[in-house]
Amino acid sequence: MTPTEAQRVQDHAQASGRWLMWFVSRDGSGRFVARAHTADPHGGAWLPGELVADTLDELRATLPPWLTHWERTEVMSSEVLEVAQACGATRASDGL
Predict the structure, then answer these.
(1) What value does the CA radius of gyration of the chain take, rounded to a whole number of Å?
(2) CB of 56 closer than 8 Å to CB of 24
(3) Which are the contacts of 71, defined by CB distance < 8 A and separation ≥ 6?
(4) Cα–Cα distance between 69 and 93 in angstroms, integer?
(5) Is the whole model's pTM more than 0.85, yes or no?
(6) Which tens digit of pLDDT belongs to each residue from 3-49?
(7) What phi and psi values does residue 14 have, to the nearest 5 degrees?
(8) Helix locations, the chain, DSSP H
(9) Per DSSP, what are the bridge partners of residue 39?
């Protein structure tokens, strides 16, 4: 998945009223991976595709820039390093 595709995924989720979270972990080779998961009142699902980078900073740069990043919580898998999501943040293009 490219950064442009990730932005489209994020925009589509918001337009359709779904909450989208990007879960960051490492793959078997040690690279950083972000996978999108949606949640809504009827459940959620992993979306196809993933962002992959050699460093965490490189991976963060491929995600939509207005997302909030936070560390995993104790209810998440220990494989999760951090989560990124829209937490009341707006994009600069929104003019807010």
Answers:
(1) 13
(2) yes
(3) 81, 82, 83
(4) 20
(5) no
(6) 999 999 888 888 887 888 999 999 999 999 999 998 777 778 889 99
(7) -65, -40
(8) 3-15, 56-62
(9) 19, 44
